[in-house]
Amino acid sequence: MWIKILLVEDNPADADLLAELLEVSVGVEWELVSVEFLHEAIAQLCKQPFDVVLLDLSLPDSRGLETLTRLREVAPDVPMVVMTGLDDEAIALEAVRLGAQDYIVKGQITTQLLVRTIRYAIERSQTFQMLRESERRFRAIFDSSFQLTKLLTPQGIVLEVNETALDFAGLRSEGIVGRPIWEMAIWAQSPQVSEQLQFAIGKASRGEFFRSEIDLLGKSGQIMTVDFSLKPVKNETGQVLLLIAEARDISDRKRAEAEILKALAREKELSQLRAKFVTMVSHEFRTPLTTIQFSAGLLQDYSSQWPQDKKSTHFVRIQLAIKRMTELLEDILVIGKIEANTLQFQPVSLNLEKFCRQLVEEQQLNDSNQHPIAFQYEGGNCDAQMDEKLLQQILGNVLSNAIKYSPVGSTVSLHLNCQNNEAVFQVQDRGIGIPQADRERILETFYRAPNVGTISGTGLGLAIVKRAVELHGGQLAIESQEGKGTTFTITLPLIYTPSQ
Prior knowledge:
Elements: E1 2-8, H1 12-23, E2 29-35, H2 38-47, E3 52-56, H3 65-74, E4 80-84, H4 89-97, E5 102-105, H5 111-144, E6 148-152, E7 158-161, H6 163-169, H7 191-205, E8 210-217, E9 223-234, E10 240-249, H8 251-302, H9 308-339, E11 348-351, H10 352-366, E12 373-379, E13 383-386, H11 388-404, E14 412-419, E15 422-428, H12 461-471, E16 475-481, E17 485-493
Parallel strand pairs: 1-2, 1-3, 3-4, 4-5, 12-14
Antiparallel strand pairs: 6-7, 6-10, 8-9, 9-10, 11-13, 14-15, 15-17, 16-17
């Protein structure tokens, strides 16, 4: 075995003694380089490698522990053995704490002690280097893992935390290491999570594996969901020495699952609504078709015997039934255009007062004057640029709903107010009203509130109203109280421009 030694000793007698002790040793080949000054030792360490350094702390150009510190800065991986006097053992122990592998006391050195100390110092240095390399590899793997990883005591105290976890939470290790894991700020949004973690620690400390989905607070303040697990590490006797806490961010997966479930629920709902719509449309068509068929049959069989007024009654019934079917088909076509996003806004010049009075007359005629419609107009100029067909859809649907869902004989009111370049239409009834739980959905296609009972309808009208108001750049507000009536307020610009 060949060992290269750097002896840093300013006392020639001590240097000669050490050289003699090494010469008489058996089984080891030595190469000894001796220097008297610290700067010479630094120069030698920079020039060539050494297996060990024998260091006297008291040199002409450096004294005390500073001598060791300065030399270790130059050669941190070279094992160093400190040589001290009889009364300097306390300093020698401090030198070991600062990185020296061992110390020997001058005046007590023997060949056997010197050789053993040198060998042990080299072996310990090699062991420390392997440990440091092993720790470096562990830290590299630990920090580069995509898992949020912590090492805990069996009591849940954090020993180590990897960079992935620190970056995820936006924290520093100083605020985590040495504290219970459940005291970390990332769990603060829920006391239940802290209790769950303490329960998990207790379970894992008894040797049981724990896994659960837990919500925590990310560095952006956003609630994140992680797949969290605790794995106990045991010794040969089964005693739990360590807990490995791992968490994997599954927020994107949970959001995707939620969106899929939401889409499936929506698709199921749409399927049910469409089936219901088909049933309602079939019923809505069947009623006027039955009227047409019945009246046409009577006219065919008995028209020659009937007076003109009776025949006219049946012709009016047929015309009204055809009109109802035409309106229904128009609603279906409009809804199709809305869903295909092809419904267009085509404004024309309109006098809104005249338009409303004509609409009221038509609604009154269709209703056979069972519900009086009170029209009131106020404000200034009511000339407007609006889409006549869409405005017909808006006010026609709202008025017909007010009539349809109100008791016979009750009054429906239409109020028009034109001012500040806006037209405000307000339709008020004293009908069945809209349940509170259905307010947000009443404007959806096919949707009808559950309190309509057997009153006919398709659930298309208000969806058309909503889209037609949007195309005008207007606003729609609904106030309703179940059993007492509903008020629709529609605000439209008199002249719509794309910037509105």
